[in-house]
Amino acid sequence: MATMTTIGILGAGRVGANLARKLASAGHDVTLGHRSTGAEAGVDPSIRFADQRSTARTADIVINATPGDTALERLTEFRSELAGKILVDVSNATHDAADGLPGELVYPGGSLAERLQHALPETRVVKTLNTMLFTVMTAPESLATPPTVYLSGDDDGAKKAVAGLLADLGWQPQWIEDLGDITTARASEALILLVPHVLRRRGFHPFAVSLAR
């Protein structure tokens, strides 16, 4: 288990709620930050709820599970609350296609993770878990082929802490691929361009974009 166990998750949709349930069941102290009423329905009663600013302020590790196309503006408003924290970005910044699936990248030639790190210089940003269907984030063993989860970030200590969280989510050490500094998030974020084509052909079946070793 990671050393810091107070976790705040920004975004109470499918991704955020899914992560909250698994991390709480692993023994972490989890707060789910939401923007609308009714987010508590169907979520583990051991998970606390708060507004997003309070969630960012009180957690040691903050997970961004908000929509990637608006995350930069939203999280920049929490600059002081996120100072000194680890920010785990699991989102993808894309424009929606006509059918509602991910479309073109919002930050071509760059990445949301890089923009977040630049906008939040006192925060240690780590990119991960953005290359799979959300159900695989907390059940990697459900796939027939061992999946890969990628890590990008400038701070090795932050990446080690996040690797601890990944272990609590069920990820084996050999499934974790540390790509390097935050600029490498350009590569993992660009993999979202594969996803809508897979979903249109295969439907919403669990998958991950993985390395064959």
Keywords:
two-stranded antiparallel sheet, globular, alpha/beta
Work out the helix count: 9
Oligomeric grouping of the chains:
single chain
| Mean pLDDT metric | 94
The main β sheet shows up as: 8 strands, mixed
Set out the fold topology:
Layout: E1 6-10, H1 14-25, E2 29-34, E3 48-51, H2 52-58, E4 61-64, H3 68-76, H4 79-82, E5 86-89, E6 94-96, E7 102-105, H5 112-119, E8 124-127, H6 134-137, E9 149-153, H7 156-168, E10 176-180, H8 185-190, H9 195-202
Parallel strand pairs: 1-2, 1-4, 2-3, 4-5, 5-8, 9-10
Antiparallel strand pairs: 6-7, 8-9
Describe the structure.
- With 213 residues, this protein is of the alpha/beta class.
- The chain is built from nine helices and ten strands.
Please sum up the structure shown.
The protein has helices at residues 14-25, 52-58, 68-76, 79-82, 112-119, 134-137, 156-168, 185-190, 195-202, and strands spanning 6-10, 29-34, 48-51, 61-64, 86-89, 94-96, 102-105, 124-127, 149-153, 176-180. The chain has 213 residues and is of the alpha/beta class.
